[in-house]
């Protein structure tokens, strides 16, 4: 079956049908998928059932896989894959991260210098209820900003700190290894980026790690960040994903926020998570500014 593409949600996410990701893809199919991913930001591919190696090798077609600072969530089969799950091992310890609670609107890796903006989730077990994931399009959000806010964000950068997110986590997720701490000093990224393929501007936000705007008093900066985030997750910018077992969803954190709703603690949810360094020729890669340069 030939590849078929359908735009879903409020007009940005793309579902691709007709793929068998456990078989080698033709070069022209890979090319088409790379372009679709760049333009749509969210790719949904259903009805796959992949080994960790098959899944990781597929994700690596889009950018080099990264081992994230959450080494405690890493799979023992393929350490570039993290487990996002509420399941626990026989010793009672979590098998992965993020448990069963709400995961608030965020962008992965905003707290990193040179963020690896590509992400994938492969659904292995899903709860009977809840656990949906939502993506908000920050290109559409930027375009709909009132002129006053477009001017307010122009040329501005925000300061991001991982500790803020750690403080929101529960239980073992709150702890970060010493190596993880060394890899996560505070960083600065501009609030607006231009998509290399479409020339469109996008906001770059992460309410779970941003702690202020460079050159603005703390309260004023945080009020502006709060206003931008509230605007950006309005329903008309959001795609809601109802998971089915076998789904593969890829997204770019360069122009999207995402959140997950909670699900019953007694249910089981297991997602395989990949993280990729996407190429700047195709994707928004947030610039990392030096704290000194920005006068912070
Ligand atoms: C993630 C994440 C949400 C989910 O893996 O970065 O936010 O639905 N996951 O599991
Ligand atoms: Mn995330």
Structural summary, described in words:
The protein has 7 helices and 18 strands. It is α+β, with helices and mostly antiparallel strands. It has a single domain, classed as Double-stranded beta-helix (4-Layer Sandwich). It is globular. 42% of the residues are buried. It binds N-oxalylglycine and manganese (II) ion. Manganese (II) ion binds next to loops.
Number of domains: 1
**Radius of gyration over all CA atoms, rounded:** 18 Å
- Structural class, please? alpha+beta
Q: From the 3D coordinates, which CATH architecture would you assign?
A: 4-Layer Sandwich
For the biggest sheet, the summary is: 9 strands, mixed
CATH superfamily: Clavaminate synthase-like
Element pattern in H and E: EEHEHEEEEEEHHEHHEEEEHEEEE
Question: How many E strands?
Answer: 18
- By oligomeric state, this entry counts as single chain
Low-confidence stretches: none
Count of helical regions: 7
Distance between the termini: 55 Å
User: Overall pLDDT, averaged?
Assistant: 96
Helix content: 10-25%
């Amino acid at each position: 079956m030939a590849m078929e593409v359908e735009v879903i949600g409020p007009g940005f996410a793309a579902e691709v049908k007709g793929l068998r990701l456990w078989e080698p893809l033709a070069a022209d199919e890979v090319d088409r998928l790379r372009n679709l991913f760049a333009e749509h930001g969210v790719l949904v591919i259903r009805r796959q059932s992949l080994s960790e190696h098959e899944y990781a090798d597929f994700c690596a077609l889009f950018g080099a896989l990264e081992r994230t600072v959450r080494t405690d969530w890493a799979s023992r089969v393929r350490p570039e894959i993290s487990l996002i799950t509420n399941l626990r091992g026989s010793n009672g310890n979590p098998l992965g991260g993020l448990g069963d609670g709400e995961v608030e609107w965020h962008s992965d890796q905003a707290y990193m210098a040179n963020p690896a903006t590509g992400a994938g989730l492969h659904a292995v077990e899903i709860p009977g209820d809840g656990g949906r994931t939502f993506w908000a399009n920050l290109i559409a959000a930027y375009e709909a900003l009132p002129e006053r806010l477009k001017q307010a964000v122009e040329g501005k950068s925000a300061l991001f700190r991982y500790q803020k997110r750690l403080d929101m986590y529960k239980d073992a997720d709150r702890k970060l290894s010493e190596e993880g701490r060394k890899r996560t000093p505070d960083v600065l990224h501009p609030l607006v980026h231009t998509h290399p393929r479409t020339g469109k501007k996008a906001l770059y936000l992460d309410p779970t790690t941003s702690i202020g705007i460079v050159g603005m008093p703390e309260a004023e900066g945080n009020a502006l960040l709060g206003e931008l985030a509230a605007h950006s997750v309005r329903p008309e910018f959001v795609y809601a994903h109802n998971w089915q077992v076998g789904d593969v969803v890829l997204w770019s954190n360069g122009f999207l926020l995402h959140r997950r709703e909670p699900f019953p603690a007694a249910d089981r949810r297991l997602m395989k998570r990949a993280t990729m360094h996407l190429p700047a020729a195709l994707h928004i890669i947030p610039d990392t500014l030096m704290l000194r340069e920005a006068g912070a």
